[in-house]
Amino acid sequence: GPPPPHPVGAMAVQKAYRQAARRPRAVLLAAAAAAALAGCSLTRGSVGAGAAEDAVTQPLAPVAFLGNDAAGVIPTVKAAFPGAMKGSAVMSKLLSAVKPYGLKKRNTIYGQSVCSDEINSDPGHLTTLMTRYYGRTFPLGGIGGAPYVGRTGFMAFSHHVPDNGNVLIVFGPHIGFSPEGEPGKFLRTGQAALSTSCGAVIAAYSQITSGARIPDDTQDIEQTWLRNQLKPHGPELAESSNTMVDLVMKAYKEVEKEVLDIVNTDFGPGHLVLLGGIQINMPYPMPGYFKPLHFSVRSKAMKPKDLMHAFR
């Protein structure tokens, strides 16, 4: 017969099962628990090895059997976003890459410019793990992930930095995938039907390709910004054979440009680290993925340095 389950793994699966019972796809984790208890191993990993204060224990991820339709979601995501990886893997590589620049938990302030959508705070997402690690976050973004706080918001945030400390920002839009691997769709907890993700970015695309004239709206400034930034890309996107993926990539470039326009190193002698990319909402109960597209460090005394090699 199979070997007895590892006690830590068994407890983790049981916990995952209890959590899944509150979700509409609970039966999936029931199968996962049975398979795991039959011998699948679950291991606990650490992030940022070194000083004790830099060690992060990652939660054990439940094994998920999502059926034949969903079995291809991960390859589909990686084909659409080469280099995408679990949020925990991105975090581990990030913390290792910035260690030579003196970034530690106690001397770094963390902020993020990601979409307000609540699914971006799901367990396993890079932004959720980073917030847990640093203890808090300064929210710079709104719908679509753009840093609507602007230069004043960045100034306020960066001036909260510990004395002689560092500033770290994660930014970018997000995209969901359905259990069948359809980009731009997501099955939310408690809902029977798929919804859009990112809804704001997809709505902006629908607006700019509708042919209707939609005036700027001071009561809807974030959607107005998204629509205006994406409008020049409308004709190209309308011809795309992979519209949702190309759309979020265009949205990313607009968000990145805005982030680079508002940041500075006037907060002190420390480093400013920027990690930009696409946050990918995977079907439950898979952990969130992240596709890194920009990773840099700079300071008053140092020109921007590309760190993307950390993810290769």
Automatic annotation (TrEMBL):
Pfam families xref list: LCIB_C_CA (PF18599)
Domain Limiting CO2-inducible protein B/C beta carbonyic anhydrase: 86-298
Protein name: Limiting CO2-inducible protein B/C beta carbonyic anhydrase domain-containing protein
Biological source species: Alexandrium catenella
